[in-house]
Amino acid sequence: MNQAIRELQSLESLSKEDRWVNNLHPLVKLFVTALFLVLTVSFDKYNLAGLLSMAVYPLVTFTIADLSFADALKRLRYVLPIVCVVGIFNPFFDRDIVMQVGSLAVSGGVLSMLTLMGKAILTVLAGYLLIATTSMERICLGLRMLHVPSLLVTEILLIYRYLTVLLKETRRVTNSYALRAPGQKGIHISAWGSLAGLLLLRSMDRAERLYESMQIRGFHGEFYTGRQESMKKADWIYLAVWTAVLCALRFLPLTAVLGGWIA
Amino acid sequence: MHMADALVAPAVAGCMYACSTAAAAYSVHKVRLEDDAKKIPVMGVMGAFVFSAQMINFAIPGTGSSGHLCGGMMLSALLGPYAGFLTMIGVLLIQCLFFADGGLLALGCNIWNMAFYGCFIGALCIWRPIMKGGATKKKITIASILGCVLTLQLGALSVAIETLLSGITELPFAGFVGTMQPIHLAIGLVEGLITAAVLCFVHEARPELLWGTEESDEKGRFSFGATVGILAAAALVIGGGVSLLASSDPDGLEWSMEKVPGTAELEAEGAVYSAASGIQEATAFLPDYAFQNSESALGTTVSGIVGALMVLVVCVAACLLFRFFKRKKAEA
């Protein structure tokens, strides 16, 4: 729980920094991220070469945005286990040799497993890049511009707003419980309902107070940011350059030509 | 059960986004019909509650391990299926963005696998029929356990189908399902017990907070026929739509075909087949893509990898130079 709170706060402070990438239009970053994700996962399961070339996007953008690769790769802890479970069997079921590197024969299963892991790493990096350079408010603003209903967008913003508050409250409750039940792993079955139930009722009461305060401030179901977002020259350049580069890396045989020229 | 982006093909992801968007649009429409301004803050705070409650470790007696709350079934028992579904979308989006738990591209799949089954099937087909005539602790316990087990089983099955249709694993479908279902049966049981404990507490303390427990709760109720209709449409979307769109990448299916009739493809003729082939050709993403001058249909050559590594080396060198000069500039 402490880690979750730390991660939330760290990402929030990163996204609020005044950097060139942070100030780009949220829709541009959403579009480039979506394009990168679609093109990356669309690679054939044996096309490791093409996939490797897609690493250009995170490498360049992480450098420009001055982001830490280590922090981003830590996020693989949720994704990698399930990807490993799915991919680890590929070498056993697909034993056909598809590539020869010197005397080393590489089977299709090994190649497809490596490609799967590569896709997992690249997509996680792209997600981190988006959220570390774009605040939740600006992502929600982008969603509104895409005509996502205000009801859903406001609700997402409220979840985000109250997440840290409720995480801290849950931490206080579980810490208090742990202090009264030393050496016990988790909440005892006799307290399952009352502990989480009380937390729930307090959250409901909080929602009631929140609703009243929102009404007093004139809330009518629409979300206002108070800032005008329009596309600037830098946004168009960023969009055009990355669209061209990513499409070239995906659709043109650049790596094969370059590799053939060197080899 | 959160699917990563790497596990889905673009066609499967797109199809599941379309299905989840349709369910979300319907839910927004239904919530707006309720015309209850208080619903939005309640949904927001309850989403944050579910998120934080997922962090609590509940000790499972006699096992030495602990379980967690998932939330779909609990949200629909408190907010109803539509508001619960929209709240789960928010939770899944934040999980995906801030904790990389599930991917942005796979969000449509995750919404369907966890939120749709948990909220629509759990609330409309399990919770409400059982709560007919008023809620009791026994009914709440049965509905919670049954709801969590069934919706998690459906979700796990969907994960296996979506992975198979994406063609990224060589693991046989039967083997994958055989691994996924029993694991999620155990998870569902524990989650059901935790959900039951929380909802029984709410029923004792504030029974008016539970959705669908009053006999007069007729507003927005689906008839049995409409519920069956929704289920049939869902089955049609999964069974027909997804497989049709994803058939451009049929590795997993080929594998199973070869095992059963001994051939990778079936001979088929007729107008329906021609129409389906036309749609497939039109929607297939990068069909038959391969490098130029490459004899390998797999599109993978040593020279390709050498080229890619070269690009990366140049890129890394450029990035290091960029950082070096930036630091120099900052020092000066």
Write the topology of this structure.
The complex is a heterodimer of chains A (263) and B (332).
Chain A lengths: L1 H15 L9 H16 L6 H6 L2 H10 L3 H6 L1 H12 L2 H4 L3 E5 L2 E4 H26 L2 H10 L4 H31 L11 H25 L16 H19 L2 H9 L1
Antiparallel strand pairs in A: 1-2
Chain B lengths: L9 H25 L4 H15 L4 E2 L6 E2 L4 H8 L1 H19 L7 H25 L5 H30 L6 H33 L18 H23 L4 H9 L11 H13 L18 H30 L1
Antiparallel strand pairs in B: 1-2
Please give a structural write-up:
The complex is a heterodimer of chains A (263) and B (332). Chain A has 263 residues and is mainly alpha-helical. Chain A has 13 helices and 2 strands, in the order αααααααββαααααα. The model of chain A has no long low-confidence stretch (mean pLDDT 86). Chain B is an all-alpha fold. Chain B is built from 11 helices and 2 strands; from the N terminus they run ααββααααααααα. In chain B, strands 1-2 form a two-stranded antiparallel ribbon. Classes of the chains: A mainly alpha (263), B mainly alpha (332). At the A-B interface, helix 1, helix 2, helix 3, helix 4 and helix 6 of A face helix 1, helix 2, strand 1, helix 4 and helix 7 of B.
Summarize the structure.
The complex is a heterodimer of chains A (263) and B (332). Chain A is mostly helical and 263 residues long. Chain A contains 13 helices and 2 strands, in the order αααααααββαααααα.
Q: Between the first and last Cα atoms of chain B, what is the distance in angstroms?
A: 51 Å
- Could you give the order of the helices and strands of chain B? HHEEHHHHHHHHH
Q: Can you tell me the CATH topology of the largest domain in chain B? A: Arp2/3 complex 21 kDa subunit ARPC3
Query: Can you tell me the residue ranges of chain A where pLDDT is under 50 for at least 5 consecutive residues?
Result: none
Distinct helical segment count of chain A = 13
Please, how many helices of chain B? 11
What value does the Rg of chain B take, in angstroms?
24 Å
Strand arrangement, largest sheet of chain A? 1-2
Assembly type of the chains comes to heterodimer
Largest interface: A-B, 123 and 109 residues
Number of domains of chain A: 2
* Largest sheet strand order of chain B: 1-2
Mean pLDDT of chain A: 86
- Strand proportion of chain B: under 5%
